[in-house]
Specification:
This protein is 2% helix and 73% strand. It is an all-beta fold. The protein has a single domain, classed as Porin, CATH 2.40.160.20. An eight-stranded antiparallel barrel has the order 1-2-3-4-5-6-7-10. The chain has a two-stranded antiparallel sheet with strand order 8-9. A hairpin with a 2-residue loop joins β6 and β7. The longest helix is centred in the first third of the chain and has 4 residues.
Length: 161
């Protein structure tokens, strides 16, 4: 199980004026002995605030990921991992309306990949960095097509049990 967090890296010009995105992700992975690869399931959530509330107030992003994973231990203290697979994402944007706020949402279907390096701290607990990239069909919100691609480098905490 892995928990990772950090800045959400989406295409800035496509999403202006939304900024200051914070992302949290939870991933479960496992491998049956004798199998060439493991499986992983991940959920991640990001929230963005707006610099210009006359255009949009905030946005929420939710990703579901299911894919193949691989893990190597080149040393007792070092864990390397990679994973990739399909991604289903959802964006919900709140913007000002005539009398009340209006919520727009759309879904994106695409792919993701990630790579991580972890240092074992004690027993099954390790800490490291996770780089991930995802792409998919664009979101249609705020009157335009918005890029669904994202790339992040996150701080990650990992527990093996």
């Amino acid at each position: 199980m892995e928990f990772s967090f950090g800045p959400h890296g989406m295409d800035e010009p496509s999403w202006a004026p939304l900024d200051a995105r914070v992302l949290g992700a939870l991933t479960w992975s496992g491998r049956k002995p004798g199998w060439p690869s493991g499986m992983e399931f991940g959920i991640q959530y990001a929230h963005a605030k707006s610099k210009d509330e006359s255009v949009a107030r905030s946005a929420d992003f939710l990703d579901f990921r299911l894919g193949a994973s691989w893990e190597w231990r080149p040393a007792d203290w070092l864990i390397l991992c990679v994973g990739a697979g399909p991604r289903l994402a959802h964006a919900e944007v709140t913007r000002p309306g005539t009398l009340a706020e209006v919520t727009e949402n759309d879904a994106s279907l695409g792919v993701y990949a990630h790579v991580g390096t972890f240092v074992v701290v004690h027993g099954g607990f390790s800490i490291g960095l996770e780089g991930q990239s995802a792409d998919g069909s664009d979101y249609d919100v705020l009157g335009a097509s918005r890029d669904a691609a994202a790339a992040e480098i996150l701080l990650a905490l990992r527990w093996s049990f």
